[in-house]
Amino acid sequence: MRYQHMFVLFEHDDGNVLNVSYEMLGEARRLMDGFNRRYALNEKVIAILLGHNVRELAYRAIDAGADAVILADHEELRYPRVNLYTKVICSIVRDRMLVKQAEPSTSDEYVKPRYMLFGADSIGRHISATVLAELESGLASDVNKLVIDDVMITHQYKTNGKPELYRQVLFMYRPDFSGFLWTQILCLDNKNPTIAREYSPQACSVIPGVFEPLQQHDGDARKRVEEGYARIVEYKPEFSNDDLKYRIVSRQIVRDEIGLEDSRVVVAFGRGIKDDPEGNIRMIEEFANLLGAKVAISLPLSKQPFNVSSTLKEKYFIPARVVGSSGKKVAPKLYIAIGISGAMHHLAGMKESDTVIAINPDPDAPIKDESDIFIQGRLEDVLPILIESIRGSEREVRG
């Protein structure tokens, strides 16, 4: 077989493992266990670990679901650099003998991975794009559901208009821009004889927080490695002067100035502000200040669909305030959704909130099913009453 195994980039920040790495390995383990049962194969989950002095992380990857880890440990790999990481990752997955060390049952015909997963974060989004360009295959971004299945396809371009069976296809799902429909993304070979071509690996970047990691058992990984049930294989990268022409001479972590994830109260607004965008944002801002809340938005607002002052646009219509599968995941004590219908990708970012209050004129808005309190009404009618009530309570306390 030319294409085998599911490779997962095990991401960390200078030795601090990112949660999405555990989540991807948990999902990879579930997918490949089902894959092997269904197709009577013995393909593996292989983690790729790059960094400096990070061998201990290899055991964590095995605890999290990896059958094997291919480790590239080098001082130049301490911090992610797109050109270096791309070169090393592509070299690893193309090296048949190296992959055979990680999994001895790998075919002598092996060329590239069958599947690859990356995190949809500041590291994975960049590296996944360059890696898949180098490997000459496709990439689905910001995925939050994965299924492996067979499918019959009839396509003018791919199959020359004839029905063709595609086997072991990775179905990669993400909500479309509206948030109410699933977009299904497939990476398919060209079976049309005039343009025949194979595309592998089938790959995607995975939204953090959507998959459950496996329950980890400290110490099990070392035992599994010692007994030969799991493997850690080292890859020695070599770099040319051209590879190292870009260097990191200093590094500072840019902290999130919005701080949505740490807020106990979040007030979020969506396209329901449309009747008076400027005035409604000012009113929401006042309401949030009274509650000591941070202000969030739904994804469509980050595309700046309304004409408001540059001050408000630069303050609120920004990606850093987006809650959802394409933004931040929050779990405050109180989440107030104002003029938000409740698209799937938004609900994914706030469904862990302790208490949800929604204000929406549509009695059938999907957000209603996720709400502890649903106030049916226009925000222009409801918010002034709430603001006055809070101010009245403050006056009584002061009095």
TrEMBL record:
Ranges of residues in domain Electron transfer flavoprotein alpha/beta-subunit N-terminal: 8-155
GO BP annotations, alphabetical order: fatty acid beta-oxidation using acyl-CoA dehydrogenase
SUPFAM superfamilies cross-referenced by the UniProt entry: Adenine nucleotide alpha hydrolases-like, DHS-like NAD/FAD-binding domain
GO MF entry, a single one: electron transfer activity
Ranges of residues in domain Electron transfer flavoprotein alpha subunit C-terminal: 260-351
PANTHER family named in the record: ELECTRON TRANSFER FLAVOPROTEIN ALPHA, ELECTRON TRANSFER FLAVOPROTEIN SUBUNIT ALPHA, MITOCHONDRIAL
Family the entry assigns: Belongs to the ETF alpha-subunit/FixB family.
Name used for this protein in its record: Electron transfer flavoprotein subunit alpha
Species of provenance: Candidatus Nitrosocaldus cavascurensis
Gene: etfA
